[in-house]
Design goal:
It contains 29 helices and 14 strands. Helix 1 (2-34) crosses helix 5 (140-169), helix 4 (105-131) packs across helix 12 and helix 11 (322-355) packs across helix 12 (362-419).
């Protein structure tokens, strides 16, 4: 029997491992179809966890206890493997159906449900079905708790191997096959155990148990308590992931580390709780005590993240080896969130003991507790990500979490009182005094803890993972002043003023400013494609930022439509207010139309075509952003260009290693074989690059461009360029740095970032601490030759341009 128990633990661990791999893969794949906005992610999460909830609650009721649970489990695992592979291959078909006419919010929900509900229903049923085996053992509740703990342990393994190996080294197809192989292996093992098990070891439930008449008094309040516990757990995970990603850097590895630490805590807590269940006389009071401790454990990270971690003497640029930084990230995550996760993990087995009734079907018991916990988790994740953080911020969200934990404690105490209602002990003065004192102390504790919570410092949102070294190096007399701060539904935003210059930060990264270097990049992102095109009328700008790139099209007399796609709704109004002179108040221009959506989703589902499309997303090492640097995205952009249309793409050299830059170049040139590279130079070296892809391969004539700029109606364009020290067509064309045909030797063997591998976010996250911008830029320039077939003209201007562009290293 002990051997069988260990094998049952292995079965649940395998299920948890495969489920976590599927979750990561499916959410990445489906975001490519229905978008990565907070609402879309909420729909995906609701569908995934909703399936787990329904499966755990419903299928044990539908499957009679007379069925061998191991054979049932094997069928479930094979079904999960089937749906996992079917989703991988069926998604392109679903995507085409979605684009054909189901692109509204209802359509997004249908796609999420169709893809995720069938497999997650089976996933949800696997734990309670195996838990039914506990009916053949003594002391069933602790054993069910250990099964749950094994399932979470498997999820830890799935999180780590998918985030750091399968998806980094291979792709989502390989990860899916690995998960399906685990499902198949677990099914084979379960069938082997079922064959080796003698039928007498399986005990059929009594009829009254099957009818659900066995219920512990007050069990409904235990379900409410564990639901509130799940709500606070997922709500806190949303809040802490939002804040820790600022301090650690929002790479795919950071999210894997935070999730892994969270799951390790749940595993350790559930294992400890399962062990303690045998030694607890009053599990409902223990459950209440855990919720009280959770209130303090939630207040702790709120203090740590806002008043302690930002001032740790940590500079991520001190080491180029990512493993050293991963070690620091794990340490900071453990010290911040681990204590609370232990308590949430322990809540589950103690809730099982609190709700258990003699003779109750273990599958029903475990399934209902799991369903209640998951239902609360769904509410918590959606409420905090979509409503509470945008409305009351992370400080208010922490306070709500503390209040909810105290509420859960009160409900657990009420369940104890309910169960003891028929005993004389509850009416004894001593017990009444104890309960009253406990409730009073609980309320005092809640008030005290809520008052300790403070908001996140604006410097954390601005400087992110380098906040400590930046604050250490800043002269206090020259410290910037925040003029705007918002924790939006998708991003946290800060705008500061320092000595008359404005700086724009998003989620720990500087994205724009009114300084010359940033202004030049933002302006040439718009002016290069606008002047290369003979007469642009329609423009799509992906990413509002400070609004300067979008505003660069305002002075063009022939532009009739400026469509701007921005994910975070808090950004455009703030940027229009504080960067109005720099962006020409583009938001107020009658030609401007704002689209608040994931840009890729908008382009995928829009029938519109444009003369110019510019894409200036956040840095590619930020999780999820590589979808705007993929081959399929560039193909979407190309397909939405009018004849003669032009695409412009931002490519950062800073915080990028050589492989990251090569991957971006190779992927763009794979779709735009005649693509060119243009530089935002800094003292002769690279700072940012702009990639240009043209459908029209005709030469760029410097004389024609200058005559166009000399027209009176282009006077505002000339003024806009002069603001960034570009005074002529020749000055603009001097930013040329190379093209695809010249850079082919450099890019030989470079990986292509596509939707199935999202290779770029793993490569870029690995090299985020690189300081190779200068040598990478000089390497690019070493391949540059004057493009006589691309840039043509006559007179002194072309001669000077030939001389400048013929040099290996730029001088100005």
């Amino acid at each position: 029997m002990p051997i069988i128990r260990w094998l049952l633990l292995l079965l649940l661990a395998g299920s948890g491992c495969a489920a976590l791999i599927y979750e990561i893969v499916w959410l990445q794949l489906l975001q490519l179809v229905i978008g990565s906005s907070a609402v879309s992610l909420g729909l995906l999460l609701a569908a995934y966890m909703g399936g787990l909830c329904l499966g755990s609650a419903a299928l044990p009721r539908m499957i009679p206890p007379s069925r061998n649970p191991l054979r049932v489990y094997a069928c479930l695992e094979l079904g999960i493997a089937f749906f996992g592979i079917a989703t991988l291959f069926g998604l392109p078909v679903i995507s085409r159906i979605y684009v054909a006419g189901m692109t509204g919010m209802l359509g997004r929900g249908i796609v999420a449900g169709v893809c995720l509900l069938p497999p997650t229903l089976l996933m949800g049923a696997s734990f309670p079905v195996v838990a039914r085996w506990a009916q053949t053992t003594s002391k069933a509740v602790p054993w069910i708790g250990f099964l749950y703990s094994a399932n979470v342990a498997g999820a830890v393994v799935g999180c780590v191997i998918s985030g750091f190996y399968l998806l980094r080294v291979y792709d989502m197809a390989t990860a899916t096959y690995a998960a399906a192989a685990i499902n198949a292996a677990m099914a084979v093992l379960a069938l082997g155990l079922a064959t080796a098990t003698h039928p007498p070891e399986l005990r059929v439930e009594r009829p009254e148990t099957m009818e659900g008449s066995r219920r512990a008094p007050g069990a409904i309040l235990v379900y409410v308590t564990i639901a509130l516990s799940g709500l606070t757990a997922l709500g806190a995970e949303v809040v802490w992931t939002r804040l820790l990603s600022l301090l650690l850097g929002a790479t795919v590895y950071t999210f894997s580390i935070i999730l892994a630490v969270f799951l390790v805590g749940l595993w350790a807590g559930s294992a400890a709780g399962s062990w303690l269940v045998r030694r607890i006389g009053r599990p409902r009071l223990s459950l209440a005590g855990i919720q009280m401790l959770l209130a303090a454990a939630i207040a702790g990270p709120a203090y740590t993240i806002t008043r302690w971690l930002p001032f740790w003497p940590v500079d991520p640029w001190l080491s180029m080896n990512p493993w050293f930084n991963f070690d620091l990230d794990v340490t900071r995550s453990v010290r911040t969130i681990f204590p609370a996760t232990l308590l949430w993990g322990a809540s589950f087995p103690i809730a099982l003991a609190s709700a258990a009734a003699e003779g109750e079907d273990p599958a029903r018991l475990s399934g209902e507790i799991y369903a209640a916990n998951t239902a609360g988790s769904i509410i918590g994740a959606l409420a905090f990500s979509l409503a509470l953080i945008p409305s009351i911020g992370t400080r208010g969200s922490h306070q709500v979490l503390i209040a909810l934990s105290i509420t859960a404690a009160v409900v657990a105490i009420a369940s104890f009182v309910w169960a003891a209602g028929g005993r004389t002990a509850i009416t004894e003065p001593r017990m009444a005094i104890r309960l009253a004192a406990t409730l009073g102390g609980t309320l005092i504790l809640a008030s005290a803890l809520v008052s300790t919570v403070s908001g996140i410092p604006w410097q954390v949102i601005a400087y992110g993972r380098r906040v400590a070294p930046i604050l250490r190096g800043i002269d206090p007399s020259s410290e910037a002043t925040p003029v705007f701060m918002s924790e939006g539904i998708n991003s946290s935003v800060v705008i500061t003023d320092r000595a008359g210059q404005r700086f724009f930060y998003v989620s720990g990264k500087s994205e724009a400013s009114s300084a010359l270097l940033d202004m030049r990049l933002q302006r040439i992102m718009g002016h290069l494609p606008a002047l290369f095109h003979r007469q642009p009328k329609s423009v799509l700008v992906v990413g509002f930022g400070a609004g300067v790139t979008a505003g660069s099209f305002v002075p063009y007399p022939d532009v009739e439509s400026i469509v701007v796609c921005e994910l975070e709704a808090a950004i455009p109004p703030a940027s229009n207010k504080f960067f109005g002179p720099q962006n020409y108040n583009v938001l107020d221009d009658g030609r401007t139309r704002m689209i608040y959506d994931d840009a890729r989703h908008f382009i995928l589902t829009s029938p519109e075509k444009f003369d110019v499309i510019t894409t200036d997303p956040i840095h590619p090492w930020v999780k999820g952003t590589s979808a705007l640097y993929s081959k399929e995205y560039f193909e979407l952009v190309r397909s939405h260009l009018n004849p003669g249309g032009i695409a412009a793409q931002w490519l950062p050299l800073y915080e990028s290693d050589e492989e990251t830059v090569k991957t971006q170049l190779a992927t763009f040139f794979d779709v735009f074989p005649n693509g060119t590279v243009w530089s935002n130079y800094l003292n002769g070296d690279g700072y940012d690059l702009v990639l240009i892809g043209r459908l029209d391969e005709s030469p760029i004539n410097i004389d024609e461009m200058q005559r166009r700029l000399d027209q009176p109606k282009y006077s505002r364009v000339i003024a806009s360029l002069a603001d960034v020290e570009v005074h002529s067509a020749a000055d603009l064309l001097r930013t040329y740095a190379g093209r695809a045909v010249e850079l082919a030797p450099m890019l030989s063997g470079a990986p292509i970032n596509n939707d199935l591998n999202m290779r770029l976010q793993y490569i870029a996250g690995w090299g985020v601490n690189s300081v190779m911008a200068e040598p990478i830029y000089r390497d690019i320039l070493s391949y540059r030759r004057f493009p006589g077939d691309l840039i043509t003209g006559t007179g002194e201007a072309i001669e000077i341009l030939e001389d400048v562009l013929g040099r290996k290293h730029r001088t100005f």
